C-alpha cells in the first residue's frame, strides 16, 4: 500500500471502495447471487441425513430439475443459521455444488422497435390479399407503410394487434425487430419566462469579472456575496450560457433536494433538454440514466445536491455551489466528504471556475475572499432596488408574562390573520421537526437520551415515541421518569407542535407541513409545494427545506 492509500483512510476514514461507491450511481453496482446444483453423486438417497434442513434442500433442488437459485430456498422456511449450516454440510459432502453470479442491480431499459423490412408496395400487396381472419396483419402493415418505423408498444396500441401478430410478420420478412435504449427520466416542466434575461449594472459588473476569471488558465475560486433577492441566480444563468458557448459543461449544486424543482424549471426554460438532475430522491434507474446522459455529453448542465459534484461531466468549465455555507454540503456518512472541498479540488484539476454564492457566506469563505485566496464579487442591493423585508423581534418571555404559553406570539397570530384575509400565503420556518425538543422530568430534571449518540431524544406526538434525529433510534414514551418516577413535561417546540397549535387557533384554515416526517417516496417535496401553490394553502410550516 502506498502513501495515497493511507492518506485516504486517515483523512477521510474510508477505503477506496467506499469512495468509488459514493461517486458511481447505484445502477452500476453488482450484487452476488448463488446458484446451487446437485452433483452426480446421489448416494444421499440411500443414507440417513441427520443435519437439520439438509434433506429438504436436496429434495427441493431435485424437484426443480437439479438446480436452483438462492431465493428458491426461501420457500423452505428455514432459519438463516439452519440454512447456512445445511448448505455448508452438503458442499462438504460434495452432494451439492455452488456458483456465484454477479448481476447488475439496474440494467439498461430498452424498447422493441419494428421497422418495415419490405417495400411499401410489396407490403400493401400482401396486406390486400389477407383474409378477414388476418385483419390485424393488414392493419399493422398499413400503419408501417405510412410511418416506416415505430415502437412495438405504440403499434399494438394504435392497431389493437398483439405480439404474436408482430412476430408472425417478422417471420414472413415484412418487419424487422430491434432493441432501442430508453431513458428513465421524468419530464422537466420549464417555467414561463417574462422575457430575455437582462442584468442590472451591479449584476453586469459581477458577470464581467467572473466571465474574465473563467477565461483564465487557472480560474481558481470566487465568492459571489449578494443580499437576499439581489439576483445571484441571473448571474449563474449568464455564466452557464457562456460556459456552453465555449463548448464546456456546468454544474449547479444546491443544499436541499427541495430547491431542485424550482431551479430545474428555470434551467429547463433556458437550456432545454441539455439539463440533467442528480440527487438521492431519484429512483435508482432514473438516476443511472441521468448519469449516462451526463457521461455521454448529451446533458451539459447538471443540477443537483452534494453528490452531483461527482457527475462525469465532459470538460467542465464552471462549478457553482449556491448557499455555500449550508452544512448539508458535508456528508455525515462514510466517506465524510465536503462537496465544497471536492468542487475546489476538481476545479483545480480541470481548470474550471468554482463559484461560491451566498447571502450569508461561511466565515472561512469570507476570510479567504478578504485575504485574496478567493476573488470577491458583491451585490449590495436587491434586484430593481426592492427594499429588504422588515424584521420584528418578539420577546417570548414577555408573551409568557401576558399569559400566552403557546409557540405563536400575538403579533405573529395577527400577521397570519391579516395575510390570510388579504388572500396571501404564509411560510413559517422552524429549525426543529417533531412535537417538542425533549421530555424532562419535573423532579430530577433528567431527559431521555439516545443510548448510541448521547443526545436528547425528540418527542413525536403522532406516534407517541422519542426519536433520535441522528441515528434513527426510537423508543416509546414512558408515563413516568425511568430514573426517579417523577412526572414528565415537554420542553421546546417543533413543527408538529406548531401545526397542532395552528389547527387549534384557526380550525377552518388549512395548514401544510414539510419536514423529514412528512416527506416520503409518495409524498415528495414537489407534491407538497405543488399543493401549497396550486391550492393556495394559507400556511406552510417546515424546517430548513421550505
Describe this structure in words.
- This protein is of the alpha/beta class and 546 residues long.
- 36% of the residues lie in helices and 19% in strands.
- A seven-stranded parallel β-sheet has the order 9-10-8-11-12-7-13, with helices on both faces. A three-stranded antiparallel β-sheet has the order 2-1-3, with helices on one face. The protein has a three-stranded antiparallel β-sheet with strand order 5-4-6.
- It starts with a helix and ends with a strand.
- The N terminus is likely disordered.
Protein traits:
21 strands, single chain, alpha/beta, seven-stranded parallel sheet, 19% strand, disordered N terminus, three-stranded antiparallel sheet, 546 residues, 18 helices
Layout of helices and strands:
Elements: H1 3-12, H2 16-23, E1 30-38, H3 54-63, E2 67-69, H4 80-92, E3 96-104, E4 110-116, H5 120-128, H6 135-147, E5 149-151, H7 152-159, H8 163-172, E6 175-181, H9 201-214, E7 221-226, H10 232-245, E8 249-253, H11 260-271, E9 275-278, H12 284-296, E10 301-304, E11 316-322, H13 339-350, E12 353-358, H14 363-371, E13 375-379, H15 396-401, H16 410-421, E14 426-429, E15 438-441, E16 458-460, E17 465-467, E18 474-476, E19 488-491, H17 495-505, E20 511-514, H18 525-534, E21 539-542
Parallel strand pairs: 7-12, 7-13, 8-10, 8-11, 9-10, 11-12, 14-21, 20-21
Antiparallel strand pairs: 1-2, 1-3, 4-5, 4-6, 15-19, 16-17, 17-18
Amino acid at each position: 500500500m502506498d502513501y495515497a492509500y493511507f492518506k485516504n483512510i486517515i483523512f477521510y476514514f474510508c477505503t477506496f471502495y467506499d469512495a468509488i461507491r459514493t461517486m458511481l450511481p447505484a445502477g452500476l453496482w453488482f450484487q452476488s447471487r448463488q446458484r446451487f446444483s446437485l452433483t452426480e453423486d446421489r448416494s444421499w438417497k440411500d443414507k440417513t441425513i441427520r443435519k437439520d434442513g439438509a434433506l429438504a434442500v436436496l429434495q427441493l433442488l431435485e424437484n426443480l430439475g437439479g438446480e436452483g437459485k438462492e431465493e428458491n430456498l426461501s420457500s423452505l422456511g428455514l432459519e438463516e443459521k439452519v440454512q447456512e449450516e445445511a448448505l455448508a454440510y452438503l458442499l462438504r459432502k460434495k452432494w451439492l455444488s455452488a456458483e456465484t453470479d454477479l448481476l447488475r442491480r439496474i440494467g439498461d431499459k430498452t424498447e422493441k422497435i419494428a421497422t418495415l423490412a419490405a417495400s411499401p408496395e410489396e407490403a400493401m400487396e400482401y396486406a390486400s390479399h389477407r383474409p378477414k381472419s388476418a385483419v390485424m396483419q393488414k392493419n399493422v402493415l398499413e400503419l408501417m407503410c405510412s410511418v416506416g418505423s415505430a415502437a412495438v408498444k405504440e403499434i399494438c396500441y394504435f392497431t389493437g394487434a398483439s405480439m404474436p401478430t408482430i412476430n408472425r410478420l417478422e417471420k414472413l420478412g415484412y418487419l424487422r425487430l430491434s432493441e432501442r435504449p430508453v431513458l428513465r427520466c421524468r419530464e422537466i416542466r420549464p417555467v414561463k419566462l417574462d422575457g430575455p434575461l437582462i442584468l442590472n449594472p451591479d449584476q453586469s459588473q459581477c458577470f464581467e469579472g467572473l466571465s474574465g476569471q473563467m477565461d483564465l488558465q487557472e480560474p481558481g475560486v470566487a465568492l459571489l456575496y449578494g443580499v437576499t433577492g439581489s439576483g445571484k441566480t441571473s448571474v449563474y444563468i449568464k455564466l452557464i450560457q457562456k460556459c456552453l458557448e465555449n463548448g464546456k459543461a456546468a454544474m449547479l449544486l444546491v443544499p436541499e433536494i427541495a430547491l431542485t424543482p424550482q431551479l430545474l424549471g428555470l434551467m429547463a426554460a433556458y437550456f432545454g433538454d441539455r439539463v440533467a438532475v442528480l440527487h438521492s430522491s431519484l429512483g435508482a434507474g432514473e438516476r443511472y440514466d441521468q448519469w449516462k446522459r451526463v457521461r455521454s455529453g448529451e446533458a451539459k448542465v447538471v443540477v443537483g445536491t452534494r453528490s452531483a459534484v461527482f457527475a462525469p461531466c465532459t470538460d467542465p468549465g464552471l462549478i457553482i455551489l449556491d448557499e455555500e455555507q449550508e452544512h448539508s454540503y458535508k456528508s455525515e456518512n462514510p466517506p465524510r466528504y465536503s462537496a465544497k472541498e471536492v468542487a475546489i479540488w476538481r476545479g483545480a484539476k480541470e481548470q474550471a471556475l468554482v463559484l461560491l454564492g451566498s447571502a450569508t457566506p461561511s466565515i472561512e469563505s469570507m476570510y479567504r475572499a478578504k485575504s485574496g485566496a478567493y476573488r470577491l464579487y458583491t451585490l449590495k442591493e436587491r434586484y430593481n432596488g426592492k427594499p429588504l423585508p422588515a424584521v420584528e423581534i418578539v420577546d417570548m418571555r414577555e408573551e409568557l408574562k401576558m399569559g400566552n404559553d403557546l409557540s405563536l406570539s400575538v403579533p405573529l397570530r395577527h400577521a397570519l390573520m391579516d395575510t390570510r384575509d388579504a388572500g396571501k400565503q404564509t411560510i413559517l420556518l422552524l429549525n426543529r421537526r417533531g412535537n417538542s425538543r425533549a421530555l424532562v422530568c419535573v423532579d430530577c430534571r433528567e431527559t431521555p437520551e439516545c443510548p448510541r449518540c448521547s443526545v436528547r431524544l425528540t418527542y413525536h406526538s403522532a406516534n407517541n415515541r422519542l426519536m433520535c434525529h441522528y441515528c434513527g433510534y426510537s423508543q416509546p414514551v414512558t408515563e413516568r421518569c425511568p430514573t426517579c418516577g417523577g412526572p414528565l413535561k415537554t420542553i421546546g417546540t417543533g413543527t408538529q407542535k406548531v401545526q397542532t397549535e395552528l389547527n387549534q387557533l384557526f380550525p377552518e384554515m388549512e395548514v401544510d407541513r414539510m419536514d423529514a416526517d412528512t416527506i416520503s417516496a409518495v409524498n415528495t417535496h414537489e407534491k407538497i409545494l405543488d399543493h401549497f401553490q396550486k391550492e393556495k394553502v394559507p400556511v406552510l410550516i417546515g424546517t430548513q427545506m421550505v
